[in-house]
Amino acid sequence: MTATIPNLPSLYDPFTTEAKWQKFWEEHQVYKADPRAGGEPYCVVIPPPNVTGSLHMGHAFESALIDVLVRYHRMQGRNTLWLPGTDHASIAVHTILERQLKSEGKTRQELGREEFLKRSWHWKAESGGTIVNQLRRLGVSVDWSRERFTLDDGLSRAVAEAFVSLYDEGLIYRGEYLVNWCPATQSAVSDVEVESKEVDGSLWHFRYPLSDGSGYVEVATTRPETMLGDTAVAVNPDDDRYKHLIGKTLTLPIMQREIPIIGDELVDPSFGTGCVKVTPAHDLNDFEMGKRHNLPFINILNKDGTVNANGGEFAGQDRFVARKNVVSHLETDGVLVKVEDYKHTVPYSDRGKVPIEPLLSTQWFVKIRPLADKALDFLDQKNSPEFVPGRWTKVYRDWLVSLRDWCISRQLWWGHQIPAWYVVSESDGQITDTTPFVVAKSAEEAWDKAKAQFGENVQLEQDPDVLDTWFSSGLWPFSTLGWPEQTPDLAKYYPTTTLVTGFDIIFFWVARMTMMAGHFTGQMPFQTVYIHGLVRDENNKKMSKSANNGIDPLLLIDKYGTDALRYTLVKEVAGAGQDIRLEYDRKKDESTSVEASRNFANKLWNAARFVMMNLDGQTPQQLGEPKATELSDRWIISRYHQVIQQTTNYIDNYGLGEAAKGIYEFIWGDFCDWYIELVKSRLQKDADPASRRVAQQTLAYVLEGILKLLHPFMPHITEEIWQTLTQQPTDSTQTLALQPYPQAEANFINSPLEAQFDLLIGTIRTIRNLRAEAEVKPGAKIITNLQTDSESERQILTAGQSYIQDLAKVETLTIAGGEQAATVTEKKPQKGLKTIGLIIVALVLLRVAIAVGNTINHVPIFGTFFETVGLGYTIWFVSRTLLSAPARQRFLAKFFAPRPDKHISATTPQPQVAAKPEKSIAGVVGTVQVVIPLAGVVDIETLQAKLKKNISKVEAEVQSLQGRLSNPKFVDKAPQDVVKAARDALAEAEKQLEILRDRLQELQ
Q: What region does 743 belong to: left with phi over 0, alpha with psi -120 to 50, or beta?
């Protein structure tokens, strides 16, 4: 009965395969974590993407890196949880919904808060899952049963708990302060949501007259409209030019109010004229000076960026319109001195994309120093968390040192409404800066507190503002695990193990999490922070919406498959934290780098098909582990365990790109290109059964190990092949994702053997290259001479002579060195035919001889005579050719060529062979010279003619390039990249010319 041989389709279809296994993993909850199970915990929380987002290349890169780590540690036997979720993204959702309302001719104020929030949740239900579904297409091994959203009930309770607790401890307060105001979103934004841009602007110089008429001072500013709110002019108290003016007053142009001249060390005497206008309500430095000198704070702006009533005649004008009109007014009044071009830095709102306006506002703040100092103590005393690469430690530390109080209130509706209730019955139904309030975790608790303090008839109104998004996401590592409740998840998986994130949110998010976690849990929220770089475009530029140079990962997934994209992104990483570059043809929407990874997947697929077709329907488990005896088997098993050790070392130290490249080289090179080719002859049905069995065992053993090694990087194709190789039933829930990761066994690693095999591989490769250079026909057998003075190299070459002959198509191989040589001639199948032919001819001649003899015997006298002669010849022939061994060998050699020994010792004395016969081509590998005689193998005259033609062509190219580069006009005026390309082309052409001439010389 013939065994059923499981096999794969002839072509790999990534799209069907990937969808099948993504569905299987999720339906069977393969990645569901169990806090009650054993195993050392390994926990990662996903950096929650905005619910408004869609998958971009940064998400794909980050998710691929995390998934490699998570899958690897899961296969290492750790109790693994990768927790997914999304962030509610207050400002982003507001932007989307207000754009929709604008198209309907409405505003959110007209709609009302309740209806606006209904619309927000409706939008979230319909469109908010886009990025989650796209992440599913990446095949990420997250526990979807634990998916969280920063506005879900559990996380909302955690936010209220944190706010109230910080308030009760005096670490949250409400006060008037200068905040970063975004007129576009009409909300305060934190320092980390501000992007500084260098712009070409102007520096305006004005004269402010002294009130006593004795002169004036000249001030310079980049924001002339703010002079409407000036309440002083400041000079450095050590500046001799202005010391005598300190204490005098000026008359503010346009507004005609008196303002003092003050001395403050903050003033830089070298900036402008050394006199600076002070607008405490619209500049942070001025704000601090205003507090030091008890100056009035005059706000001249509305929240939409227009001038308010304090701006006099400019009220109602947009701030930039007012700027032009103020300058025009001052010029008319004769106080404008000059205008200079001035390049300076302007803060922009990261969300609103407009210049930030410092605005005096009553907001909620966190006293940041106690939280930051505790995080600093963990860093300085315990190096916790540990940053990879380590250079980011200093960046993180410097940020913690320089933090100021954190403004956490936002003038938005979508988000966590601040858990503070104003007692409006104490302020005529209005919320004012002096209205008393209570802070509570719920409305019920707020009513109880307010009634106890203000009586039964109290009226409450909750603060309309919401909390900064980063407040809730700062709690993410522990709130997602159930905090403030002491849940099994929190007990098992907290602190989390690794945070994988980009360097651009160290300040936005990483520092927020460490400060919050240090305060509320007394631990850092993760052991390690792995900072990855950016994905740059084909021109090595940062991808951004403004530059319109993003690359859609879904487009590449649709073209090449998920595994191909994931593998490319990881393999391109050269060192932890480094940026990667993705090759991309925008005209064709194609990527050569992702295509290469798809080709790698196809290579693995075809190799797996070959292996399974030669296992006689047996699984790796049925075949058992190989007991390797042959050189090639011991070599591939040593290489396999060497790669296991290398891969685990790399992943354990976050060298994910290096690990991916090492596996690639082993699979494509060692396994597919060499080992499979080496064992093909041993897999034939008529091969030695014992050798065939070991070859099958080795192929199955290494292939299954390869699938496990590669699975964290390319999960879908490896799962598909493994299921077929191990012949899992269709109803099985077994999965490669839960198999143990290979462990390196030192007793299988044989580094000297690998080095020896490298010489064999190098020799075969050199012979193949020489064949190609000489244009030897692919099927033609050749003679090859190998010569080396190294005894050890001769032994290696002799031991592997059959591999050299099989894979390089060598008929006669001579291994020589010093006074010794060994020659092996390939046994030709034609010799058997020759022997049969000789036997047939001998039988025919014998038959003719018998017939002639019978005829002669019938002739009188001749019969007796011939019998006597025949008897004498027979006695002579036997004594001359058959009685002694040398005589027998000489006789048989006339009809049968001597068979070579199966194993020939390199020490057998033989005549020395000339190193390089005439009309030959030669190469070198190590210290071995490889010589291939070409006579009778190729048409040397035709080859010489072709080489001469190519030499003439390349000589013309060299001459042309030299002419261009010797022309000063070209070198000086052409773009530098064009000149460099010409120089590179010349160097390449000259090298090619040298090679062609050397080849021709060898044929002379």
A: beta
